[in-house]
Design brief:
The structure holds three protein chains of three kinds.
Chain A: H1 2-6, H2 13-29, H3 38-62, E1 69-71, E2 76-78, H4 80-106, H5 112-129, H6 134-152, H7 159-190, H8 195-200, H9 202-205, H10 211-227, H11 236-243, H12 246-271, H13 276-299, H14 304-325, H15 328-353, H16 370-373, H17 375-389, H18 395-409, H19 413-439, H20 452-470, H21 472-480
Antiparallel strand pairs in A: 1-2
Helix pairs in contact in A: 2-3, 2-5, 3-4, 3-5, 4-5, 4-12, 4-15, 4-20, 5-6, 5-12, 6-7, 6-12, 7-10, 7-11, 11-12, 11-14, 12-14, 12-15, 13-14, 13-19, 14-15, 14-18, 14-19, 15-17, 15-18, 15-20, 17-19, 17-20, 18-19, 18-20, 20-21
Chain B: H1 2-24, H2 28-48, H3 52-77, H4 91-110, H5 124-130, H6 132-142, H7 145-166, H8 170-177
Helix pairs in contact in B: 1-2, 2-3, 5-6
Chain C: H1 5-25, H2 29-53, H3 58-90
The chains are: A mainly alpha, B mainly alpha, C mainly alpha.
Chain lengths: 481, 185, 101
């Protein structure tokens, strides 16, 4: 018992807070009628907000420290990088909850488990952000993924949702197998799974002489590659993002990418830092393949959800530039992820406004002449798409600028050139939707459903995108202060 | 010395044979049974490796609980349920080729004279003195306390998942009963 | 250890590859799922062998966690398969494979 209490519980305080909120949601759900369950959404908002307050306080306390605080025998660390990532997760969770209630009510899916699973999944990300051991990396990824498998199939008994869920589940479990085998090989090659000891091991100092160690790194990258939908392990992404309920897709696009990136950064820099001559070239090539494949795929899509799914693959490729740059690259990754999350949640928010339970604005043709009927929605969608494409003066431009300058200063000029060419390519498919909205004649009256919560999320996203575009340096100064 | 080699050889052949039989079996029930055989063979290998406790857990949890659950679902759905993916041309030879290449690569990676890892202190003598389950429990609740707590959350999520995916809301049941002509579940 | 650790590791590698082959080969969800379990089983075998060879218990503790996670995944996975089976049973079979892959 003394040992139990002697652990440094503050390192998992935000995750604990989310889990307890989730448990209360599950409990209270039992006493609520279907039409009262919207209250659970408001309660979850409090959960995400409270966790956000906790991490901001921790961040203020930790900022000036020379050595980061660790807990649970070095399993977890409390440092600024992890805390900033957690702030991002909780913001995304907050906005995703705002998107959900209207959709769930219209489809008669309003159930407390939805919010509880969203909270648990975010708790998994929060654990990942501080992971300092391969076991925590593995468990964090599982706590992040398993709720998402369930959420992807939440729109039961719709078959496309269930099939998306099954596909996501099987490929996710498949990837877990690779991740675990990689962990086993690293354990055999170094005798440890703790990042600190891995970093100091002989195998990491001379990785090229240790085949088992190199194979372990490769298998771990395959496993994580599946999770962040890095090419060539991205094939599941469009199907799953298309089939999952739209609010869940929005959460997955925005949050899992961030969760995967923090896992990758922790593993590569904290665990395998000295062995970077092995993973650096490998990851560089994969980054180039990922962005190109994603953008070419997006060009061919007629379904907006699928298009955004392919675009998310492309963005994973851009983000890898930041991961490879290290140091200043992490700031770029964080800011880019923030902008990317806001834009995507905004775009999905607009998609959610344009559905009424029966019709969904998924086909690209349903955006024809939207500006005529709903000029506000069309304007917002245009802002978000332009930001995704990286047009100045939107926030997306600034995010790409940060990533690319970080890449150049780290000597990755060739990769940055590929990324710039890709960005030009991506303009075509984003602009196609805008052209449809403004320059083509409408075919039919679009479906529309008013929701104050979605409007609130859209307002936050839009203000964020515009402000980050106009005053870009403020957030960077805040992070690096 | 030879007895151990013989036992290892027998168990290795059994586990590989059951694994191959499982992935090629046409009937899912046979597949489950081959899998149980595989788990049992691996459990005996754990005994050979000096971990009888893990062997017991393997039999109870894997071969017992999990595979019975599989068998239950297979029986519910019939032995040849609908395929998940459309057939991709050339899938079989490509999968086999990939499997062989992967096996060759992995064997090259793990076939080492001696592990390069730094050895710990839990040698077989120490374990015998402490008692193996005791030593395991100590490691589990000291160094691995946090992961242990996290798995409890994972199991809870698993339970919620089963409920969410299998439970039917009242309105779903009503909607379903209406068009049906008295077919029982 | 009388039988060298590399024997166990090679056996683990073979079982893992068989599992991967099974996932790629089969189109039936249950068989794919069982092949994944085979992969995890191979990982566990490697962990126990390494744990013995390295005189450390970390590998064996890892096996516990792998088993627990596998149990949680099985609960979700089988529930999903049953749910799809029921939807297929009550819906028109032509609606299946909405998603091309």
């Amino acid at each position: 018992m003394e040992r139990f209490l002697a652990q440094n519980w503050t390192v998992i305080q935000p995750a604990l807070f989310l889990v307890f909120t989730g448990l209360i949601v599950l409990l209270v759900d039992l006493w609520l009628k279907e039409e009262e369950r919207e209250w659970l959404a408001y309660f979850s908002l409090v959960g995400f907000g409270g966790a956000g307050v906790i991490v901001v306080r921790q961040w203020l306390a930790v900022r000036g420290l020379e050595t980061p605080i660790t807990g649970f025998g070095g399993m977890m660390v409390l440092d600024t990088l992890g805390l900033l990532f957690q702030m991002l997760f909780f913001l995304v969770g907050f906005l995703a909850v705002l998107l959900a209630p209207g959709y769930l009510t219209r489809r008669r899916l309003q159930r407390g488990e939805f919010y509880a699973l969203l909270l648990f999944s975010t708790a998994g990300m929060s654990l990942l952000a501080g992971a300092q051991d391969l076991i925590m990396l593995f468990l964090g990824i599982e706590v992040l993924s398993i709720p998402l498998y369930i959420l992807a199939g939440f729109a039961r008994p719709r078959l496309d949702s269930e099939e998306a869920s099954l596909k996501y589940f099987l490929l996710g479990a498949f990837a877990t197998g690779f991740l675990l085998y990689g962990t086993a090989l690293l354990y055999g090659a170094t005798g440890t799974t703790a990042f600190e000891a891995l970093r100091a091991s002989e195998a990491a100092a001379a990785p090229r002489e240790n085949v088992m160690f190199m194979a372990g790194i490769a298998l771990l990258l395959v496993g994580l590659g599946f999770k962040i939908s890095m090419a060539p392990f991205h094939q599941w992404t469009p199907d799953v993002y298309e089939g999952a309920p739209t609010p869940v897709t929005a959460f997955m696009v925005a949050a899992t990418k961030a969760g995967g990136m923090v896992a990758l950064i922790r593993l590569l820099y904290w665990g395998l830092g000295p062995a970077d001559d092995v993973w650096r070239p490998l990851l560089g090539v994969l980054a180039a393949v990922t962005m190109t494949w994603g953008n070419v795929g997006a060009l061919l899509q007629r379904n907006v959800k699928r298009m955004l799914a392919y675009s998310s693959i492309a963005h994973a490729g851009y983000l890898l530039i930041g991961v490879l740059s290290g140091g200043v690259g992490f700031v770029a990754v964080l800011v880019y992820l923030l902008i990317y999350a806001l834009t995507n949640l905004g775009a999905f928010g607009v998609i959610l406004l344009l559905e009424d339970g029966e019709r969904e604005a998924l086909d690209i043709e349903s955006y024809r002449g939207l500006a005529r009927f709903h000029p506000g929605a069309a304007l917002l969608m245009s802002v978000f798409l332009l930001s995704l494409a990286g047009f100045p003066p939107t926030a997306g431009f600034f995010g790409k600028f940060l990533l690319f300058t970080a890449g150049i200063s780290a000597g990755l000029t060739w990769l940055v050139v590929v990324a710039v060419l890709n960005s030009v390519l991506s303009v075509f498919y984003y602009a196609r939707v805008i052209v449809k909205m403004y320059m083509q004649e409408p075919v039919e009256t679009p479906a529309f459903s008013r929701s104050w919560l979605v409007a609130g999320a859209l307002a936050v996203a839009a203000v964020g995108v515009v402000l980050l575009g106009l005053y870009p340096t403020v957030v960077v100064r805040l992070i690096t202060a | 010395m030879s007895a151990q080699f013989v036992i290892f050889g027998l168990l290795a052949v059994t586990s590989v044979a059951t694994a191959l039989a499982m992935i090629f079996s046409r009937n899912a029930v046979h597949g489950v049974l081959f899998m149980v055989g595989n788990f049992a063979a691996v459990a005996l290998l754990y005994v050979l490796l000096g971990s009888p406790f893990l062997a017991a857990v393997q039999i109870l949890v894997y071969a017992g609980a999990i595979m019975v659950l599989f068998l239950f679902v297979v029986m519910l759905m019939g032995p040849e349920p609908a395929p998940l993916w459309e057939h991709i041309p050339g899938q079989r030879p490509l999968a086999l080729l990939f499997g062989l290449l992967l096996a060759a690569g992995l064997i090259a990676a793990v076939n080492v004279e001696e592990l390069t890892g730094v050895p710990g202190i839990m040698s077989q003598e120490v374990l015998e003195r402490l008692g193996q389950p005791t030593a395991l429990a100590q490691t589990l609740f000291e160094r691995y306390l946090l992961p242990f707590e996290v798995t409890s959350l994972l199991l809870l999520i698993g339970m919620i998942g089963a409920v969410v995916l299998a439970k039917r809301e009242k309105h779903e049941l009503q909607a379903e009963r209406a068009p049906r002509e008295g077919g029982a579940e | 250890m009388i039988v060298p650790v590399s024997y166990y590791l090679v056996l683990g590698a073979i079982l893992f590859s068989i599992g991967v082959t099974g996932v790629l080969l089969r189109r039936n969800a249950i068989m794919v799922f069982m092949s994944i379990e085979l992969m995890l089983n191979a990982v566990n075998l490697s962990f126990v062998a390494m744990s013995r060879a390295l005189d450390s218990l970390d590998g064996q503790v890892f096996v516990f966690f792998v088993m627990t996670v596998a149990a949680a995944e099985v609960a979700v996975g089988l529930a999903l398969i049953v749910a799809i089976f029921r939807s297929l049973g009550s819906a028109d079979v032509d609606d299946a494979h909405v998603l091309k892959g």
